[in-house]
Design a protein that fits this description.
The chain is an alpha/beta fold. Helices cover about 15% and strands about 30% of the residues.
Length: about 160
């Protein structure tokens, strides 16, 4: 392009039969998935616009806010929960694992397993591998060493009876 060149701009007058959006239209799509909202807008003949996508506790893809503007329903869509990276906690103490998982915004459950090789109180396994990017609030199952099993004691054998 050079200075002085003519630019032709063509504006669409919209699709035939499409009407201005109303507050009732905004309520029809509230809480729906983006795909469902598009189908409703097509059937009801109004425009649907995605203003932004934000992290939310609502399921990913659901409309969390909708408002009728002069010609369209303008929406905010959930990106789901914010994602975090799973820390490496296997091999460390349970207390250290709790601190790391709390800092990452993750929850956890624990179960114990006896081990002759792993010291008591050490995390043996974690249900989600370190380095994975998962939604905040996801629960990680930890298996913690209960230490060596108790030695089995044999019941004393009765001495043979002498008659």
């Amino acid at each position: 392009m050079n200075t002085g060149d003519t630019i032709v701009v063509t504006l669409s007058s919209g699709a035939d039969g499409v009407r201005n959006a109303t507050d009732a239209d905004a309520q029809k799509v509230a809480g729906k998935s983006w795909e469902e909202a598009l189908q409703i807008a097509e059937q009801e003949k109004f425009y649907l616009a995605r203003k932004e996508t934000v992290y939310s506790t609502e399921p990913e893809g659901n409309i969390i806010n909708s408002q009728a503007s002069s010609d369209a329903v303008v929406t905010t869509v959930s990106a789901g929960r914010e994602r975090t990276i799973v820390p490496e906690v296997a091999g460390g103490t349970l207390d250290a694992a709790k601190q790391l998982l709390d800092a990452a915004g993750l929850t956890y459950t624990t179960s114990e397993q006896t081990s002759t090789e792993v010291p008591e109180g050490t995390v043996m396994t974690q249900s989600v591998a370190s380095g994975e990017r998962i939604p905040e609030g996801t629960e990680i199952a930890l298996t913690v060493s209960a230490g060596a099993p108790e030695p089995e004691t044999e019941a004393p054998t009765a001495a043979p009876r002498v008659q």
